[in-house]
Design brief:
Layout: H1 4-13, E1 20-26, H2 29-39, E2 48-55, E3 72-79, H3 81-84, H4 91-107, E4 112-114, E5 118-121, E6 124-135, E7 141-151, H5 178-190, H6 196-203, E8 210-214, E9 219-227, E10 233-237, E11 240-244, E12 248-251
Parallel strand pairs: 1-2
Antiparallel strand pairs: 2-3, 3-7, 4-5, 5-6, 6-7, 8-9, 8-12, 9-10, 10-11
Amino acid sequence: MLKRENIEKSLTELGLNIPLVFYELTDSTNQRAKEFAKSRPESERTPVLFVASKQSRGRGRLGRSFVSGGGGIYMSLLIYPDERGFDATKATAKAAVSLCRAIDALTGVKPEIKWVNDLYLGGKKLAGILCEGELLQSGKIGYLVIGMGINVYKNAISEEISGIATSIEDNSDTVPNSSLLTARIVKEMLNFDGSLFEEYKARSMVIGRTVRVVKPDFQFDATVLDLNEDFSLTIEHDGKTERLFTGEVSLKI
């Protein structure tokens, strides 16, 4: 179970000097991080970590709820892109690879990435990512909140979602300490090194697969031919090839 003192200890052991805001229960760590950023003096631009043992209104992309009643890590990292040379357009991809690296390092389990923001293990969802931010009139990003929900223990999976979701504990003999995993994720995010594109592509589970492309007004089946360096997908459907920049894909059996 996540505890403030254990997370702070793990952050310190990994050489991370970052403020922590911890909740036993909150509505959404992303919401708390955004409210914090809006009320913060403009001169204060250091990263801040928000973590909750449980969320009552966890959210995913497209306004969907994210089950977060316990047994997982529910965290949001508030950063200021200009202060760290952080490319906001690649935040979701960087979060996905960082999550994979942290889980792999502590358990040996190798999650796959389902474009654009989910981690999967054994064909089931392990983690979700939601990035939100403030766009200034200048066109720059004022702040960025990178929210992540990871199913660590079996009790994170309710009976209702057991057919589509999984946990680290379900897939590994080595179940990580959730506080240490939280800190390791932050370290990977803030000290990212290596080729983001190449690693994201190597971990992709959609290339060469038939997927269902979901857009606001319509859906269609397509084959994913490749991932491009801007993290768009090249897809083929109805005899035509096109680039997919937005939307969502689900895997076809």
